[in-house]
Amino acid sequence: KRQVVVIGLGRFGVSLATTLYKMGHDVLAVDTNERIVQGISPEVTHAVQADATNESILRELGIANFDVGIVAIGTEIENSVLSTILLKRLGVPYVIAKAENNLHGIILEKIGADKVVHPEREAGTRVAHELPLVDVMDYISVSPRYGVAMLTALPYFVGKTISQLELGRGGRWGVAVLLIYRGKEVIVTPDRAETIKANDVVILSGDDENLERLLTAAK
Amino acid sequence: KRQVVVIGLGRFGVSLATTLYKMGHDVLAVDTNERIVQGISPEVTHAVQADATNESILRELGIANFDVGIVAIGTEIENSVLSTILLKRLGVPYVIAKAENNLHGIILEKIGADKVVHPEREAGTRVAHELPLVDVMDYISVSPRYGVAMLTALPYFVGKTISQLELGRGGRWGVAVLLIYRGKEVIVTPDRAETIKANDVVILSGDDENLERLLTAAK
Ligand SMILES: Nc1ncnc2c1ncn2[C@@H]1O[C@H](COP(=O)(O)OP(=O)(O)OP(=O)(O)O)[C@@H](O)[C@H]1O
Ligand SMILES: Nc1ncnc2c1ncn2[C@@H]1O[C@H](COP(=O)(O)OP(=O)(O)OP(=O)(O)O)[C@@H](O)[C@H]1O
Fold first, then answer.
1. Residue partners of B170: CB distance under 8 A and separation at least 6
2. Beta carbons within 10 angstroms of residue B129's beta carbon
3. Mean pLDDT of chain A, nearest integer
4. Residue A206's Cα: distance from chain center in Å?
5. Which chain A residues are within 8 Å of B141, Cβ to Cβ?
6. Which of B11, B51, B7 is nearest to B29 (CA)?
7. Any residues with CB less than 8 A from the CB of B208 and at least 6 apart, and which?
8. Span from the CA of A86 to the centroid of ligand 2 (angstroms)
9. Which of A152, A151, A164, A156 is nearest to A194 (CA)?
10. In this complex, is the C-beta atom of B40 within 8 Å of any C-beta atom belonging to chain A?
11. Residue B212's closest CA among A186, A149, A92, A24?
C-alpha cells in the first residue's frame, strides 16, 4: 500500500483522499481550513491543518517519505504551483496536480508535476462520448473513433445469446462483448453461446459509430 | 446526429460543447457572457448570448426541438436549477445537469434532471483508482474491486506473447488482455499466441489487486 499526501480539500481533493483511504492506502490530508480538516478526519488516516507552501512545515510532516503527493488546490494558483515545487524538491517521487485552466496546467508541467488533471475539462469530453450512448455507465476512448463502453444489459439483450444478438467477431454490428459482470461473477471474453441475463453489466468494444448504432437499435 | 444545447460555458460546458461539435453533432452554446459566447463560436454550430432562466427566450431559441440539453452552470445554483426545470418543461427529452455539491445534485435529481454530473468528485475517484496503476491511461470501475484498465504496453510486456506473460485464463496474474490497439488496428480478445509490440495500447481486466500486482512486478 502507498503513503499518499493530499493537499487541498475541495471536492476533488476530498473525493481522492477518501477513496484512496477506502482502498487501503495511508492518506494524510492537508488544508489550511480547520473546519474542513476536522470534517474529513474520520475518513482518512490523518488530517492536518497546515499551509502547504511552507517548506519547513512540509519537512516536519515527513513529506519526503511519501510515495505520492497530490496538490488539489484550486483557485489559489500560486499556492498550487509553489506546493507542487516543494513536493518535488522534498523528493516525493510522483506528484499529481490539479489545474484550474490551460495556462495553470502548462506551468505545473514545466515545474515538474508528473501528472496534471483537469477535472472539469475531462468530464466534458467523457460526458460527450457517453452522450450518444445514454445508457452507458462508463467509457474509455481507445482512439478518437473506437471505444470501450460499460452498460447494464438493455431489455433487448436479455435472454438472448451473444451469437443471437449478432455480436462478436463477424457479427453484423461490429461490436464485441469483452466481459460480463453478473452479481459477483466476472465472465471474461464470454463465448458466443453465453446468454445475457437481466442486471448483467456488460463491457462492449467497437467503433463509436457501431456502438451507437447497436444501442440505438436496441431501444 | 443529435441536436444538443449546452447552457453555461465554464470549463465543463466548453469542453462538452466543442467535443460534441467535433463528433458531428449540432451544438447550440448559450451563456449570458458575451465575450465567452464570441470566443466559443467558431467551435460550435451556433453560440448565443442569452439568459437561460428566461422561458420566452428559450422558446424563441427552439429549445423544444432539441434532443439533449446540458445545464453546465456552476456557482449560480438557482440559475442551474431553474434552467433545468425549464428545459424539462419545454419538453427536452434528455437533460444532463452539472452539480456544484451534494445538495445541489439532490435538488437537480428531484426536479427532473435525467443525469447529474459531479466533475470534481468523479475525477477524484477516477484518479484514486488509476493511482496504484500509474501508467494507466484510463480506467473503468466494474465493481468496487474489479476494473478494466487501458495502458501503453510496458517494456516488460514488449516482445512476449500473452501466454509467456502468464496473462489470460488460468494465467497466474488473474489478469486478462481484452483488446490490443496497434496503430489503427484493433485486435479484440487476442489469443494466447499474440506477441505484444512496442506502442501497443492494451485493455486489461482483473481484480484491482491483481492489476496492481502485475503492473508493480512489470516495472
Ligand atoms: N497553501 C495551502 N495549503 C493548504 N491548503 C490550501 C492552501 N491554499 C489553498 N488550500 C486549500 O485548497 C482547497 C481547495 O481549493 P479551492 O476550493 O480553491 O479549489 P477548487 O478548485 O474549488 O476545488 P474543487 O474544484 O476540487 O472543489 C481549499 O479548501 C483551500 O483551503
Ligand atoms: N442564467 C444563465 N444563463 C446562461 N448562462 C449562465 C447563466 N448563469 C450563469 N451562466 C454561465 O454559466 C457559466 C458557468 O458557470 P460558472 O463559471 O459559475 O461554473 P463553474 O462551476 O466554475 O464551471 P466549470 O467548473 O465548468 O469551469 C458562466 O460562464 C456563466 O456566465
1. none
2. 20
3. 93
4. 22
5. 138
6. B7
7. A23, B129, B132, B145, B146, B147
8. 33
9. A164
10. no
11. A24
Integer Cα distance of B8 and B37 in angstroms: 10
First-to-last C-alpha distance (Å) of chain B: 44
Stretches where chain A sits below pLDDT 50 are none
C-alpha cell recorded at residue B49: 448570448
Ligand 2 within 6 A of CB of B53: yes
- φ and ψ of A173, to 5 deg: -80, -20
- Of the candidates A53, A57, A63, the residue with the CA atom closest to the CA atom of residue A92: A63
Unique residue bearing C-alpha cell 495556462: A103
- pLDDT digits 0-9 by tens, A44-58: 999 999 999 999 999
- Dig out the grid coordinates for A127 from the structure: 460526458
d(CA A182, CA A203): 11
| Ordered DSSP codes for A4-54 | EEEE--SHHHHHHHHHHHHTT-EEEEEES-HHHHHHHGGGSSEEEE--TT-
Closest CA to B188 of A169, A131, A153, A128: A169
Q: Residue for cell digits 465575450? A: B35
For residue A159, give how far its alpha carbon lies from the nearest alpha carbon of chain B (Å): 22
The tens place of each residue's pLDDT in chain B, 219 residues long, gives 789 999 999 999 999 999 999 888 999 999 999 999 999 999 999 999 999 999 999 999 999 999 999 999 999 999 999 999 999 999 999 999 999 999 999 999 999 999 999 999 999 998 998 876 667 788 888 988 899 999 999 999 999 999 999 999 889 999 999 999 999 899 999 999 999 999 999 999 999 889 988 988 887
- DSSP class of residue B41 equals G
pLDDT at B134: 66
Q: Three-state DSSP class for B32?
A: coil
**Which chain B residues have a beta carbon less than 8 Å from that of A142?**
150, 179, 181, 186, 201, 203
